[in-house]
Design goal:
The protein contains one helix and 15 strands; from the N terminus they run αβββββββββββββββ. The chain has a 15-stranded antiparallel sheet that branches. It is mainly β and 234 residues long. The radius of gyration is 17 Å and the shape is globular.
Length: 234
């Protein structure tokens, strides 16, 4: 286990109570009336229609290409109009995962994660939709993927919640991090640790650059998923 990972685990443990669990910050009250219905333009998670971001990673299973496209489609969830983002993952040229994510931004600039429709593939055949969820359905609730005003370092918060299916938690590690990836070198990044009680051994650090959004992800095996291209298609 690497020193950086150990240091972060110490930080996460320090955020917990006597039982060792994370203390989760209360999210703002979800109110459909607080969503103006405009674009998602949070500087650390902008979703301009037509933008396509491409990420590459060398993994133990092969070469991974992750393509994220902000579509012109929308979906209404709990009375809120959400942006639909199409996310695909290919491993050595073969589709292994396809997801439609739904996001909306409130009047305070918080970007809410409203759910996802996710499908895993093997040999071109759908094999699982585990992890799919929609706020307001089956007890699922929306989470925050990016704050309008970044909370202090050490703050932990729900990014999504459907019991037993989607329980990702983010923790703010830094607000002035640097990320060096093929698409460029970025400063003043928000750096988070993403964990989930559903998979206690899974740990990821993510870097969100101003004006771009996610540019780098590093897991506990030091596998780097790096931004390699950004296109804005009219």
């Amino acid at each position: 286990m690497r020193s950086g990972f150990l240091a972060t685990l110490v930080l996460l443990a320090a955020c917990g109570g006597s039982g060792g669990g994370l203390v989760l910050t209360d999210l703002p009250q979800f109110d459909a009336a607080n969503f103006p219905g405009g674009p998602v333009d949070n500087p650390y998670f902008p979703l301009p229609v037509g933008r396509i971001l491409t990420y590459n990673a060398d993994t133990e299973d092969g070469f991974e290409v992750n393509t994220v496209e902000v579509t012109s489609d929308t979906k209404v969830i709990l009375g809120v109009t959400c942006v639909v983002v199409h996310d695909t993952v290919e491993l050595d040229g073969e589709l292994v995962e396809e997801t439609f994510d739904w996001y909306a931004q409130d009047a305070d600039g918080n970007v809410w994660y409203m759910g996802e429709d996710s499908t895993e593939y093997e040999g071109g055949v759908p094999v699982s939709t585990a992890g799919s969820w929609e706020a307001g359905v089956g007890g699922a609730t929306a989470g925050i993927i990016m704050w309008g005003s970044t909370p202090p370092v050490g703050t932990s918060y729900r990014q999504e919640f459907k019991e037993g299916e989607a329980e990702d938690v983010g923790t703010i590690l830094a607000t002035d991090a640097m990320a060096d990836v093929p698409w460029g070198t970025f400063v003043d990044c928000v750096k988070t640790a993403d964990t989930t009680p559903l998979e206690p051994d899974v740990y990821e650090e993510k870097f969100y650059a101003p004006g771009v959004g996610p540019v780098l992800e590093v897991d506990d095996d030091d596998v780097r998923t790096e931004l390699v291209d950004v296109q804005d298609v009219p």
